[in-house]
Amino acid sequence: MLTSVARGVLALPLEFRDVMAAAGESDGVVCYSARARAGDPERIQEFTAIGRFADAVPLRSANAWQRRIDWDHAAVPVGLRPVARSLDGAEDMYAWGRRLREGLVEMSRGDFEVLWRQMRPDPPDERRYR
User: Fold this and answer.
1) How open is the CA angle 44-46-80, to the nearest 5 degrees?
2) CA distance 31 to 29
3) Could you tell me if residue 127 is inside a domain?
């Protein structure tokens, strides 16, 4: 994930083409990581990156679809547990974890804003994204 953030992109496997195409320019994107690295025994369960789509059309590379993302480089990771009660459907923490394991999860604008505030205490300038 860190490589994608540094490159200013989000890359997903080819089977996610429809999802990548459906996301609108300026739609939000939040990355969740159950573990620091694939295969690590230690679980971190954190939202690790947040930003907005910066283009309207996905580009295909050899094995993935990519979209440019305006990542918020000032954002800091925040654990699922501290914010879960503020998210839609939070009454069932296990259900949230199960949803996140599926890969791509659509979330409400309200949930995105909760995560934005938690990951970066200074609210974004909304005019920038209109």
Assistant:
1) 110
2) 7
3) no
CATH number at residue 12: 3.10.590.10
Q: How many domains does the chain have?
A: 1
Strands of 17-124, DSSP E: 28-35, 43-53, 59-60, 64-71, 78-79
Type of residue at 32: Y
Q: What is the pLDDT of residues 15-43, one digit of tens each?
A: 989 989 999 988 999 998 888 887 888 88
> How far separated are the first and last CA of the chain, in Å rounded?
27
Tens of pLDDT, residue by residue over 104-114, are 778 889 999 99
- Taking the C-alpha atoms of residue 77 and residue 75, their distance in angstroms, rounded to an integer, is 7
Tokens encoding 45: 């369960």
- C-alpha to C-alpha distances, 79 to 35, 67, 69, 89, 130, nearest whole angstrom: 11, 26, 22, 17, 29
The range of the structural domain enclosing residue 40 comes to 2-120
